[in-house]
Amino acid sequence: MKKQLLYKFFFTIFFLCTYCLLYSQETSFILSDKNGTAETKALYQNLKTLSAKGYLFGHQDDLAYGVNWRYEKDRSDVKDVCGDYPGIYGWDLGGLERNNGEKNLDGVPFKNMRQYIKDAYKRGGVITISWHFDNPSTGGNAWDTAHGTVASILPGGASHELFKTWLDKAANFILSLKGENKELIPVLFRPFHELTGTWFWWGPNNCSAEQFKILWRFTNYYLKEVKKCHNLIYVYNTGGDFKTKEEFLERYPGDDMVDMLSFDTYQWGDPSKDDGFTKNVDRLLSIVDSAATETNKLTAIAETGYEAIPYATWWTDVLQKAIGNHNIAYVLLWRNHGYNEWSKKMHYYVPNKGQVSEKDFIKFYEAEKTLFEKDAAKENLYKAH
Ligand code: BMA
């Protein structure tokens, strides 16, 4: 009798443990890097939980400059307008690969960038990094779409060794991002962005889907296994030009190499004349939602905006409606360069004080689902909960 009870007891314990294990695997979100740092794994898991409540609002180069100002300590156009910093900050490594790579392609010194990243992390904000890197086989810039570049940097290609030295430089920067306890700062890394667009050397007119996948897999392997960058959350990012889930995933390199699915899309038409942008974003997000369910990944709009925002209620009438009830982790607006000598136009994507959409931006800020830095800080995103 006693023996039977003991069996029952052990059987119940065994059953409970198995159930808990299976259940936790099903509900938890596993970072693709099994050796990811505790903070990186926690951030990934917490972004998943957070995306059911709302989305982080992001801005490119936010702390470096804005419309009519450059390099003023702690300044931000977003903060000038709504009193809070963005929840996520975008930065770009383009230029780091150059011999005298002290500043990025838009003039941001990497020394400053590192400090901005540390400051934002300390306040509880999130960091994402893209890389408009030069063409390694021609020496031209990211928009030099000379044919055959991707083939030349794959293992065995003529520019492969050079490409590795560029990855070394990126790794040095990524590994120099540390918090106060010397822990690595997690980064949402978005390499080869807008990968379905024809304007960058890694685009579909210059390499096959297979070549692209190998490029991604090599980059991921090199940064993770050789350089030991275990603070990266990988963001797969297309243009806004796909029509089906299959098209969106055509160059997807595999579940073990990606953590988040995203696309970039901008408003071009006039929102007072038609709601094409809102409808299109909703359509794209529905496709990405189903791809994310299939792959068990997070989603985001990694770049968007309406240049110079010449529409007073763009934030609540267009962007907020476009995102609607889709559970994305973040939406990032492009940079506030100010007057652009080259295009002879104002080039900015979030309002500064006095801008026509300022009041509506504050309404957008106050909306329940938009999460800025104070909201992010409350969530303690770098701690496992
Ligand atoms: C583009 C523009 C350019 C910039 C590039 C990389 O969208 O903003 O002025 O150099 O992004 O940041």
Commentary on this structure:
This protein is of the alpha/beta class and about 375 residues long. About 40% of the residues lie in helices and about 15% in strands. It contains twelve helices and 13 strands. A hairpin with a 2-residue loop joins β2 (about 65) and β3. α9 packs parallel to α10 (about 315-325) and α10 runs parallel beside α11 (about 360-365). It is globular and about 85 Å long. It starts with a helix and ends in a 6-residue tail after the last helix. Residues about 20-25 have low confidence and may be disordered. Beta-D-mannopyranose binds near residues 106 and 132.
Describe how the helices and strands are arranged:
Elements: H1 2-27, H2 38-51, E1 55-60, E2 65-66, E3 69-70, H3 77-82, E4 88-92, H4 110-123, E5 126-130, H5 149-153, H6 160-175, E6 187-190, H7 209-226, E7 232-238, H8 245-248, E8 260-264, H9 276-295, E9 298-304, H10 314-323, E10 330-333, E11 338-340, E12 345-347, H11 358-366, E13 370-371, H12 373-379
Parallel strand pairs: 1-4, 1-10, 1-13, 4-5, 5-6, 6-7, 7-8, 8-9, 9-10
Antiparallel strand pairs: 2-3, 11-12
This protein binds beta-D-mannopyranose.
